[in-house]
């Protein structure tokens, strides 16, 4: 019997009972980092505020921060920011978000760049935004119906989410302004 066969396989029902902050991917539990550093929190507020301004009058979409995204009975993740459209579930995100933003920390980098990248790509998330808070840079990926295609790196630019029920943009110059050494 291999080492992997001895691992516990958890479900959403188990996950709901846990204390603290966790994610569940393919039945494997991942602890989340302690409370994010101030820069992480600040960038989350700046980006979610900009998105909220765009989606404020959109009756079909909403901006959510740190909300459970239940993909399967054994897979629940918690994106930093998600824009969800036409999702009637009140308990968690139940369908692929239009936009997911993850702010990269050293502890979560591999999970965000590899594991969640693959997961979100498979689920058909339209836009995946990775924020590198130390580099003051964002990488944006857009799903083409089969896979993610890199749209580019953004630091001072504004990115427009063109395939959205409601128009939306993120102005990265504004997002990173406070942290630039002028």
Could you describe the 3D structure shown?
Residues 13-144 form the Putative restriction endonuclease domain. InterPro entries: Nuclease_put_TT1808 (IPR012296), Restrct_endonuc-II-like (IPR011335), Uma2 (IPR008538). Pfam families: Uma2. The protein is α+β, with helices and mostly antiparallel strands and 182 residues long. It has a single domain (33-179), classed as tt1808, chain A, CATH 3.90.1570. The chain has four helices and twelve strands, in the order αββαβββββαβββββα. The protein has helices spanning 12-15, 38-55, 109-123, 172-176; strands at 22-25, 28-31, 61-65, 69-72, 75-77, 81-85, 99-104, 127-132, 137-143, 148-154, 158-161, 168-171. Strands 3-6-7-8-9-10 form a six-stranded mixed β-sheet, sandwiched between helices. A two-stranded antiparallel ribbon has the order 1-2. Strands 4-5 form a two-stranded antiparallel sheet. Strand 4 (69-72) and strand 5 (75-77) form a beta hairpin. The mean pLDDT is 92.
Question: Which key features would you list for this structure?
Answer:
182 residues, alpha+beta, tt1808, chain A, two-stranded antiparallel ribbon, 32% strand, Restrct_endonuc-II-like, Uma2
């Amino acid at each position: 019997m291999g080492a992997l066969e001895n691992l516990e396989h958890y479900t959403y029902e188990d996950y709901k009972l846990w204390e603290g902050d966790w994610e569940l991917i393919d039945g494997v539990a991942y602890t989340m980092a302690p409370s994010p550093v101030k820069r992480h929190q600040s960038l989350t507020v700046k980006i979610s505020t900009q998105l909220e301004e765009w989606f404020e009058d959109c009756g079909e979409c909403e901006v959510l921060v740190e909300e459970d995204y239940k993909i399967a009975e054994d897979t629940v993740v918690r994106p930093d920011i998600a824009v969800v459209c036409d999702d009637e579930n009140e308990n968690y995100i139940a369908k692929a978000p239009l936009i997911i933003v993850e702010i990269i920390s050293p502890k979560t980098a591999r999970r965000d760049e590899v594991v969640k990248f693959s997961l979100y790509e498979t689920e058909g998330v339209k836009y995946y935004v990775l924020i590198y808070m130390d580099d003051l840079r964002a990488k944006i990926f857009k799903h083409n119906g089969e896979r993610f295609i890199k749209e580019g790196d953004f630091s001072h630019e504004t990115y427009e989410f063109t395939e959205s029920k409601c128009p939306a943009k993120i102005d990265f110059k504004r997002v990173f302004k406070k942290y630039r050494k002028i």
